[in-house]
Amino acid sequence: MQSIDFRDLGLLPELTETVAALGYEEPTAIQREAIPPLLSGRDVLGQAATGTGKTAAFALPLLHRLGRSTDGSRSVRALVLVPTRELAMQVAEAIHRYGKQLGIGVLPIFGGQSIGLQLRTLKRGVDVVVATPGRALDHIRRGSLDLGRIEFLVLDEADEMLDMGFADELDAILENVPATRQSALFSATLAPRIRTIAKRHLKDPVHVTIANEVGAPGEVPRVREVVYVVPRPHKIAALARVLDAESPTSAIVFCRTRTEVDELTETLGGRGYQAEAIHGGLSQEQRDRVLRRFRDGRSELLIATDVAARGLDIEHVSHVVNYDVPSSPDAYVHRIGRTGRAGREGVAITFAEAREQRLLRNIEQHTKRKIKIESVPTVHDLRARRLEMLSADLNTAVESGELERYRVIVESLAHEHEALDLAAAALKLLDRSRDGDGESEQDIPTVEFGGGRGQKTERKPPRPRADNVATTRIFIGVGRNDNVRPADLVGAIANEAHIDSRELGAIDIADRFSLVEVPEAIAEHVIKALKRTTIRGKKAGARRDRGR
Ligand code: AMP
Question: Could you read off the pLDDT of 218-240 as tens digits, one per residue?
Fold first, then answer.
């Protein structure tokens, strides 16, 4: 993989310093390709999914441009259009983070948020607006968002915006943006309708794509590849579970940034793992020391960034763990090439968040192999696994003999107890002595990916009900076609019926309807409340699900 430094890209020093401080060691593929043309003033048409680092790929050049020529007027000079409120918040947050040193003001605007607050902030003046198309158009029509001085325009996840039916809004907005602006359009696919938009609104764009990079497909033999889809707050716990279940003899855990490497190493250390960090911030001497300890088995886990791992002279590891989905298929192939070498078996484990599904698909397309989605082992699985290992250890101990000292004790105890009971009790003691990891008993939610694109069945996993409360499913007459997401259903039910969202169980969203599991005792109450309300602007209608 070609190595290039952020400093080589020609960004303002404030920006290179900021990304260094965030622990980014090198630009990702999409950043390497998109930043130089954007800095030179070209338009860019980029094919990249979430998780590739595409936000920084447009945010850094955007900030570079605004930062180089602050005109002091605080008029809106950059507009980023995104499909959802979540993305608006995320992107605004990222731009704020990257642009802090430059003092750039950012405002996310989206529906559902108080328009008053947005109006006041717009009046005070911001440099960058990150908006969903509907709300942006609202403001344009009210005269509160003036696009007359826009220099930089981004359409992020353009395919998603079209899927959500924002085509007309986009056209209307783009008419209000000066033709002199620079534009970047990012989309996970370059379907014909995306190309049409690009043709209409971009000027001779540079095409960048990271979907199919270098590296021969099918390169990695004998590697079991699995993925766990886990919400971010549960990732550490999930990693610990998986490590316990897999008990790797040696493993490299990859993170995206130096900061993540340091944090994860510390957290794992606190949980009793022998983990060592390795990243570009270490001196040669420190690196050598870390490697020596790893090679002779004094540490079991190496937590690394891609950059640090690239030059590592490590023959083989039993497990490669991607704590985040790598930002390109190429990086994935590189990483997991560290296991399954020379005909040995290896395991490649990837943790993904639900929104990184597209990135995984890219990897699968590239490697021409399916990555199996598994559930994080439960506490029950871990116990079973531990007993399995105990019994294997017992077997070895019996075979290796030298039991004389212990036989004497067993013989004296055998006057009072059955030999079988004695053995079982000994096992129980051993088991208990290994049961000290303090792991919480709670199961970690995993999220399932649905089928193809746009066919996603969003599913909030059922929380196991410790209290055995009887539940029932409620049928609600809005679904994916109405852009309903689990959060909309939870929000509507919690607000209208005044119940704690933790009362709700599994949520399934189909095209035209949704099913929500609620405690039987409050089912009627919830149905009544739902009849009074709208979800995503539609009267929903609710009744008990007849399927049950
Ligand atoms: P995105 O694809 O923009 O959603 O970014 C995915 C994640 O990668 C975010 O958490 C970023 O903070 C992180 N990231 C972006 N660029 C880099 C980089 N060059 N090195 C390491 N992490 C990065």
Answer: 444 578 999 999 988 889 989 99
pLDDT (average), residues 307-328: 86
**Mean pLDDT across the chain:** 85
Q: How far is CA 226 from its chain centroid?
A: 15
Give the CATH architecture of domain 471-544: 2-Layer Sandwich (3.30)
pTM > 0.85: no
Q: 449-458: per-residue pLDDT in tens?
A: 643 333 333 3
Predicted confidence (pLDDT) per residue in 200-216, tens digit:
999 999 999 875 443 34
Question: What are the strands, taking DSSP E only, across 233-382?
Answer: 251-254, 275-278, 301-304, 319-322, 346-352, 372-374
Ligand 1 mean position, distance from CA 457 (Å):
26
Nearest to 87 by CA among 55, 120, 53: 55
Mention the CATH class of domain 6-209. Answer: alpha beta
**C-alpha closest to that of 44 among 28, 29, 61, 27:** 61
Structure tokens at 112: 């559902």
Q: Which atom of ligand 1 is nearest to the CA of 55?
A: 3
CATH class of 223-379: alpha beta
Structural domain spans, the chain: 6-209, 223-379, 471-544
Nearest CA to ligand 1 atom 13: 53
Instruction: Verify whether ligand 1 is closer than 6 Å to residue 250 (CB atom).
Output: no
Please state the φ and ψ torsions of residue 509, each to the nearest 5 degrees. Answer: -115, 115
* Cβ burial 368-398 (10 Å sphere, 16+ → b, else e): eeebebebbbbeeebeeebeeeeeeeeeeee
Whether 257 lines ligand 1, by a CB cut-off of 6 Å, is yes
